[in-house]
Amino acid sequence: MASISSNLLFIAFILYLAATLFYGGSIKVKKDSNEKKTTTKWGQIAVLLTIIGFISQLGYFITRWIASGHAPVSNMFEFTTFFGMALVGAFIVIYFIYRTTLLGLFTMPVALLIIAYASMFPRDISPLIPALQSYWLYIHVTTAAIGEAILAISFAAGLIYLVKAIDQTKSDLQTFWLEIVMFTLVTVLGFVVVSSGFSAAGYHEKFNWIDKNDNQVTVDYTMPAITGPHKGELLTKGGFQPWVEMPAIVNAKKLNTVIWSLIGGLFLYSIIRLLLRKRIGAALKPLVKNVKLDFVDEISYRSVLIGFPVFTLGGLIFAMIWAQMAWSRFWGWDPKEVWALITWLFYAAFLHLRLSKGWHGKKSAWLGVIGFVIIMFNLVAVNLVIAGLHSYAGS
Amino acid sequence: MNDVKCECGHVNPHGTVLCEACGKILDEQADKNQLLDMRYEGSARRSQTYNKTIIDKIWNFFSSVKVGVWLIIITLIASALGTIFPQKMYIDQPPEVYYQQEYGTLGKIYYQLGFDDLYSSWWYLLLIAMIGISLVICSLDRVIPLYKALKAQKVTRHEGFLKRQRLFGVNSDAADKDLTLVKEQLQRKRYHIREENGNLLAEKGRFSRWGPYINHIGLIIFLIGTMMRFIPGMYVNENLWVREGETALVPETGEKFYIHNNKFILQTYDKNKDKTFAQALSKAGEVAKNYQSNVVLYEQSGKSLPGEKPKLKKVMDYKIRVNHPLSFDGYSIYQASFRSELSAMTFSLMNKQTNQTYGDVKIDLYNPKETYDLGKGYSVKILNYFPDFEFAKNGEPSTKSRDPNNPAFIFRMYTPDKPKGETSFVAIRQTIEPFGNNTYKMAFRGIDTKNVSGFVVRKDSSMWVIILGGIIFMIGVVQGSYWQHRRIWIQRKSGQVWIAGHTNKNWYGFKREIETVLAGTKLTMPEDQLQAGKNKEEG
Lengths: 395, 539
Ligand code: HEM
What we know:
The complex is a heterodimer of chains A (395) and B (539). With 395 residues, chain A is mainly alpha-helical. Helix content of chain A is 69%, strand content 5%. In chain A, strands 2-1-4 form a three-stranded antiparallel beta sheet, with no helix packed on it. Chain A has a two-stranded parallel sheet with strand order 3-5. Chain B is of the alpha+beta class and 539 residues long. Protoporphyrin IX containing FE sits between chains B (39, 65, 67-68, 71-72, 131, 134-135, 138, 142, 209, 212, 215-216, 219, 477, 480-481) and A (345, 348, 351-352, 355-356).
């Protein structure tokens, strides 16, 4: 069962990848046959592939559930994969409302990156500690992820808006920040490439080091240590000697991973820039030529409107019910809870600015981008950096 | 202040921008604008009308959405600051030491700014309170006039009103059969249709306009609910430790309920049995599977005199587990933690030279006996017992608490050859012989432990208010987000047929709907004047 499950996930990934290419194709074709409103052949194939991929991933989810006996949303790998799936699902829904394949071209790569990122975490089926053994947990986590995924569509739509609306003939803050967004996406790819590279090569090196409580502990690096642990002593013969040693309060291993990802990202980004000979934002511009700004602006707003109630229900209300059952208090100011509150407040501010202050267009698109940054921060940084009750076990 | 009478005959309250009934522009300033600001139907909002007294000023401050958004943003940033380092409640050392030690100077500053307990700081609570006030005033300022305006609206609208709608178009004339078809198609789309002198108003989803106000009411109720726990008696939150085999009074129940702990159970996953998790378990090591206390809940029957043992009546057996609290009479008891405690210690009376022993003494640490007779003239007396031993400031042995965390004894050992007895002070890993060298000693043999279940006892009488607030919030937010208020006016003006449309959001979908409604007729799709203006600008 577990192996069927991972095969289905793999198939889904490949299908999403193929779909992305077809979305790209559908835009190109459209440009030639100008001014046709209906979805092109390529676009139809792309959507079909997306749906089959989604069903395949649903199969992964169900089979893994059967194999483990609990809903597979209980560790970093499972949750992040589910988030990727929810993103594809949200796209499919929005697609059937607005029928634009361009949105697929921007959403699917994000979903692919998220699923690839998820696969970098340990994929073992993990047991549930008592606090996690609750139906409310499944309900809470899945609903929250679906809500966040719908909200993330406003990021994709916002990107389309910005790529189209920002004048790439000059260099200003807007082109700069748009390029930072692109670079960040590339860096995630960098992380995936670097870590799967080292793990394929089976890279390992061990250190003895002294933690902040003066205990001697060992740590296992899976990438060559650029930043070594505090008073680290390399145990692996022929291992890579760290360039710098970190103080005890810094998690040198995680920092090392971040540095390697940045190196990978910079490397990939330079290659892309060399090939394109312009900013990624500028290179994407021809793709969005035919889309109306008001149209994507509305998609972006609409997805926030649809996602906000779902997120409130899953991320806050169901979360409170579960917290009440598991920890006897519905709210405990745990970092993960606080960041859910921040996400919620942020989108509330988004809605008010839009409705009452008339923040449409570029401003609204930027807000969509920031919102997604907050969601990803909660998913990644709060789990891995700010430890709390919610942070999934494992490093 | 004077009310304003419109030429259509409707009397509007002072401050109205658009006549509530026909939509004629009453306010001179608004006339210059190309498109109407339809957000609150141009109704007379207090905040836009009065600005004299201090109350007006406060009202206007809190009714501004700009202020509201600022409050939200500030709260958001403040909340984020609180997650940089762990909050006070999540650390197990004194905060004045912890922050500096763990995070250096930054940690020290964090602590000095009071961010270690940010979410209960006065200014954080003030921010939340201000959001609450803002919510109330903001909503009142808008909802009442909006309600009145929407209720008073007439079918026939003023020309200026129609022309300045974002969706507007003119048809030279329309055949009657076209209009009947449109009407049919509008009905199929579930529009409510009102007609008057050949003019038509199709409207749907008006109730969605109340969504924001309902969700704000929900939020307010929720906030009130969370404040209610500060009312004495509304909220109980106590820790309770109960040893296996013991019965304890449940605190804050007015001496009414007792709980007996039969057994505490800790289960961990087993690599060999839970095969699915074998791989994860071999990496993670021990993983807890279940924390459980098997308990019996008792209720006191009748009043007992002080000092008398209470008469208890069994209420129920229950297995308290994480995620499965025991609930009764508004209280809930949660499995929160556990510890294992020393319950008995065993010593042998031993001759130090020959190592011969003369019997074992097993001491119940909760309830030690005074003397232990070992027969044949051997006996041991406990002169003094310190369950939680420490040396007091004056150098005398003393006890910190009544829990046997670090037991120590002063024994007097009586033997046939030392009938007067020898004194020995015995603590964990140390023996002191205060009156010189002894012949005998109490040799440590072993310990027994007992589990102690850690419970949290809760009562939250405000819970229903909080739940109610949450439900109302959800209803309001869904109502406002998943429905839109759409209106289409089809009216005869100066021999032509004018079509105007308004929706409070989601214009793209609205336009597509109008397209289907007009399909099959000669009527042309009204133009999006906003879009047209933009296209002109964009060139
Ligand atoms: C965290 C607190 C708040 C939440 C979650 C919240 C939620 C909402 C939501 C979901 C909407 C509907 C938005 C839309 O349909 O696009 C809304 C509308 C609105 N909110 Fe809030 N709100 C909050 C605080 C406030 C505050 C503090 C104010 C006052 C300044 C305020 C004033 C308004 C107004 C005036 C509207 C528009 C009503 C309309 O145009 O019909 N809100 N709110």
